[in-house]
Write a structure and sequence with these properties.
281 residues, binds benzoic acid, Protocatechuate 3,4-Dioxygenase, subunit A, 6 helices, 24% helix, binds fe (iii) ion, five-stranded mixed sheet, alpha/beta
Amino acid sequence: MEYPFFSEKDSVDVVNGRMADDINPRLKEVMTSLIKHLHAFAKDINLTQAEWEFAIDFLTRTGQICTKERQEFILLSDALGFSMLVDAINNRRPEGATENTVFGPFHVEGAPELPMGSKITLDGKGDTCLFEGRVLDLEGNPIAGARIDVWSDNSDGYYDVQQPDIQPKWNNRGVFVTGDDGRYSFIGIKPVSYPIPDDGPVGQMLAALGRHPYRPAHMHFMVVADGYQKLVTHTFVGEDKYITSDAVFGVKHSLVAPFEKLDGGEAQWRSEYDFVLVKNK
Ligand code: BEZ
Ligand code: FE
């Protein structure tokens, strides 16, 4: 038999056949599939040399704009719906459990732990909103000692870390720990929609695809409790004009929360939402 040199027809077998037998089996599985799908993609679209060079340049620019604060590859994964796909594969949950959504780049470790009911909005801007509810197990029992880390943009559509010289540190962030009743409450703002960073290659890609860069208004929650799966999610404002066209595909029906207008009192709005956690396997 002739030695199987590279050809268009046999490209997948030739490349995958070069892998040694005694390598990490998971690496072998992943790379075999990656080569299969990557080669099929190029054949499917008859990829031109110019298009491939454009793609290399795009990926180069995506890497070059990355800094400690800016991760353009994660943004690319988000904008392609890939972050949500990986999240969905890794967080299949039973009916009744709160669904995960994308983590995003704006969480900051170390936000202050505050008493229940505290105000987390420190810049005095925006409509105040009381967020409250319970952390429950699948049977409806309250979970004590659940740590709820929350973060949102301000009413101008920026997270504090995007405007370190303008916003107070920890603006619209806090951590709350539930007591025996599983209840949480805090006063933030009714969040507003905002664009994902769109001044780099991902923004150019969105524009070329006729897509806007906006995320519908949301409040981020990360809920951690001993013995339970970690929940990373948001609640969304249902009437937001971008609710059906989130730039990163993070919206799920079950995560659209009620926001009711209040008359008088410390907050102008109230949003009640219970988080239901699943026990660790
Ligand atoms: C966020 O919601 O904070 C976010 C998620 C993905 C990309 C950019 C921002
Ligand atoms: Fe966000």
